[in-house]
Amino acid sequence: MNLEKKIQSVFFGLAIGDALGVPVEFKDRSYLERHPVSDMIGYGTHNQAPGTFSDDGSLTFCLAEALTHDFSLELTARNFVDWYDYSYWTARGFVFDIGNATLDAIERLRDGERPDLAGGMSPSSNGNGSLMRIAPLLFYLLDKPIEERYRITKEVSSMTHAHIRSVIACFYYLEFARELLFTNDKFKAYTHIQHLIPSYLETLSINPEETTLFDRLLKADIFVLPSEEIKSSGYVLHTLEASIWCLLTTETYEDAVLKAVNLGDDTDTTGAVCGALAGLIYGWENIPEHWMNQLTRANDIKELAEKLSAKIQADNPGLGIE
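The structure assignment produced for this chain is given below.
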């Protein structure tokens, strides 16, 4: 495995999916059926130039940058606060999009709240704000047993979204990505996760009403559903299902992220969450070159991938990665 290329693929896959969705965020599906996104465009909803990633990309890179040091929730929290207060890791030097739950959590972090207690814990606090930024944790968790993978995922999600539903969504996503990393077979990964996740969650005494919410992913073939049964709002379960559905019903990076964006509503986040997985499968070299060339801060993203790869390899010399 060439770890640096894998990390680049996830980072660029996510950021480009995000940027594709930014101009049409909040547009509904019927509008996008009439005016589908077919290429990188700009302006629109947030009046941003083509290739501009949003809070999804920024907070992803804030987490990734923290992981280039010794893992620390406190450093990650400081990066999140610096993003909001000082535009750290923004695409163009200013913040233009943030969810309410994430904003509330960042304000609590700024006030000194313990990071893993800062996120909202109520059922109404299950937006997709932790899922959208969780992808870099995949690489930090490579050598960890499942118990530690779950614990750390829970801590990192809980910085902004602490309800068990958001935690399970992040855990499913990272475990699915882990399977893709080692098998590069999306259907084999999907099937294996259907056995792995439920058996582990059963050991945690989680309210079964919560785990039942994931049945379309854990007990069924979500990819056979028609688009009418796939929702794409900012609710974490909708984003997770839509992203997996888009990945499993397409055969290229380009088709996956365009399908995700054209579902409508929370277009940048569905594009980002799906884009990271699609990048992992198809590789950054199969992302359209003109999209790569349009992406803001591409050189910085590449350097961040190099730094994270070097750190993980230094910490895990026996892992069998390049």
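Interim note for the steering committee: DSSP finds 16 helices and no strands in the chain. The CA atoms of residues 10 and 276 lie 4 Å apart.
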